[in-house]
Hints:
Blueprint: E1 8-12, H1 17-29, E2 33-35, H2 48-54, E3 60-65, E4 69-71, E5 80-82, H3 85-98, E6 103-107, E7 121-124, H4 131-142
Parallel strand pairs: 1-2, 1-3, 3-6, 6-7
Antiparallel strand pairs: 4-5
Amino acid sequence: LSITNNKKIFIVHGHDETLKYNMANWLRSLDLEPIILHLTANMGIKTIIDKIKENSDVRCAIVLMTADDLGKAKNEESLNPRARQNVVFEAGYFLGKLGEEHVILLYDHGLEAPGDLSGCVYIEADPYGGWKEQVRTEFKAMGIEYAK
């Protein structure tokens, strides 16, 4: 399948296992194919970036920016909730590969947004699943067909 007509959605994630598997199950219910890197075959690939590249033939990347880490700038007083560094890195990778119109950032309320990711779609990951309708709207705009 080519990138333009496949149903693959890459899920970039941190440590929130519940949200990761809720997202994957919801995507499957829409007849889409979630790609979760650690669940894909290694096929002799030696580096994580090579494995990301090998599995990046997707229509969209959904980045789960969950408050897994704490951090601050040197001149700040308090620590702020942040996404894991690998999540920010992979978000940047998919931004460059797919373009900002095919990257959705699902973020925890109060999360410190990483710099240089403006232009992406930011949707709050509310615990009640209200994000699902917003993600469907983005899928429609991307031309991603899914089961109703």
